[in-house]
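To whoever picks this up:

The nightly regression suite flagged KamA family protein as changed. Nothing in the input moved, so I suspect the structure step. Input below, exactly as stored in the fixture:
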Amino acid sequence: MLVQSSLSEVLKARSELFSRTNWTDPTSQLQNRVKGEDLSKYFVLTESEEIGIRETIRLHVSTTPYYLSLSDPIDPNCPIRRMIVPRSEEAVFSSEESPDPLDEERLSPVRGLTHMYPNRVLLFSNHSCSVYCRHCMRGRKVSSSDERMEKSDLENAFAYIRTHEEIEDVVISGGDPLNLSDSRLEWILSELHSIPHVKICRLGTRNPVTLPFRITEALCKIIETYNDDKLSIFCNTQFNHPKECTKESKEAILRLLKVGVSVGNQSVLLKGINDEEEVMLTLHKKLLEMRVRAYYLYDPELIPGSRGFRTPLARGIEIVEYMRGKIGGMGIPQFVNDLPGGGGKITIAPNWYLGYYPKTRQHAFRSAVTKKIHLSFEPVGSNKESYYPTISDSEWEKFGL
Ligand code: SF4
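Regenerated output under the current build:
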């Protein structure tokens, strides 16, 4: 039953929740998660949010007290709140949307495993998360108990990897693999470690953002055991807004770095949350301060109810263009589109390269710093001149060089 709470009731409920949670204990954080209609006790809801909570059927609604504490109880435009609380747009589906826009199920030879690229696979280890992000592109998996991965499913997945010697790289995702117990995660890592041709393991987790206390010393010890000469373990996480870059998150990242796990960030470009140039620049500056390298900026997928989050494709290009020259290259994400229908990822970059002018053997570039056109010569005797888009005489003249 959805109740409308006043601000004083919301503040009181928050204070009670925060004091009954053993703050740095991940189990207590998970036990005290706020779910479904209970969100109405912790926010002064708008009409759109009320509809969103009542009518959302695609994806669970849940947040840890820690992540809730980063959100604003009154302002509906708070970026953290927008990632926690569904809005009415989320309940509206359109025909161009799909629960599985990347065709992951079609590319799944055994349950819970997607094999799209020749040398790497995506393993769905579990279907639960600490917080259910409203923009999640795997809502079909994380919200369905039918998607639960049993031990036998994982054994079948390992058997598949074992018999496919071309697989060198395993991405473990879900759900969130760090929502598994330590013992289950240890078993998964030990299995992968024992497969001779698997050299790389990537953990996809949002826990450094939504429940940083889950990155415990004990967990790091397990990871350290298997992160050796034989297997390199990486972690990719998803910070989407500077408000998420807290002291607690930084400490969690440092614990991972200390056991030799390098951490990359995969943001999602989200309308009204981080689709402003300065927000994205600040986020990536803070991430570098936390020693997290930029990896991807995703164009959001066409999942059901995604209209509230999707921006024009141009926004991602403009933002990356803005960032160039204002932060070191390791702080600039690659803007990517994971092509619908299982086409894999492609990067979409600003148009810095303008083309080749054969008469002078020169390439023309647009500079991110000077905003002017700069030229560079193709080597004498090159046999690649036909490779480049050609600049016509009239275009060349327009440059006014
Ligand atoms: S943590 Fe990842 S898998 Fe889980 S809801 Fe968020 S985006 Fe989806």
